[in-house]
Amino acid sequence: MYSIILTESPRGELRPLEPWMAEEFLAHIDRAREHVDPWIPWATFSTDLDSARATLQRYADGQASDTRRIHGIWL
Prior knowledge:
By secondary structure, this protein is an alpha+beta fold. 48% of the residues lie in helices and 13% in strands. It has three helices and three strands, in the order E-E-H-H-H-E. The two termini are 17 Å apart.
């Protein structure tokens, strides 16, 4: 896994989201769900740990085939 330090925020890092991060991913989506559901399709499909892991696995498979990626920002 790689990370990119964001120059606008010295503490921020851009990193790929991986299937093993499903619990943290789901917790973040749950905190922001009412704001992101209308705009971010994968949030609607990530409603429990299994579906969150499946969402991240689809992106991991897409990254392996160079067709899609998903990243997050950590502060």
